[in-house]
Amino acid sequence: MKAIPVHPTRRRLLGGLLPAGLLLGAGGVAAAADSRAGVVYHLSDSARATGAIRNLENHRAADDGIEIAVVALAGGVDFLRSGAKDDNGNDYSALVEALSFKDIRFLACGNTLEALDIDPADLHFGVEVVASGVAEIARLQNERGFAYIRP
């Protein structure tokens, strides 16, 4: 039987698929990253916070085992500040704290806090500060295999 020539670009592509195929055979791509599924919500505008909180509540109710992180940066950190209220005058504090107790992590961008001169002590209970919001989103996606949601 005569061998069919393969273009070098296709050979590289096919060669790259072999390791991916081995990973899939060993339990999927998730096995290569982190064995626990996760999702990162990206919030850069607090005007979307109320809708995002509804999404988070629904997501947690539908999948109690998934790891959920909310990364807030730029204008998205405003709803994480003590005393922040939604358009109806409801305090975000109770909502954020209730979701924190359901193992949803809230992460505020340290670069944003510094740029806006916000003291981390002014954030709701349980909010963590990360050096860079965008770097944390990238890390969760690349190193942990988290899915990305931008409500």
TrEMBL record:
InterPro entries: DsrEFH-like (IPR027396), Sulphur_relay_DsrE/F-like (IPR003787), TAT_signal (IPR006311). Pfam families: DsrE (PF02635). Keywords: Signal. The keyword Signal applies. Residues 1-31 form the signal peptide. PANTHER family: BLR3518 PROTEIN (PTHR37691:SF1). This is DsrE family protein. It comes from Spectribacter hydrogenoxidans. The lineage of its organism: Bacteria, Pseudomonadati, Pseudomonadota, Gammaproteobacteria, Salinisphaerales.
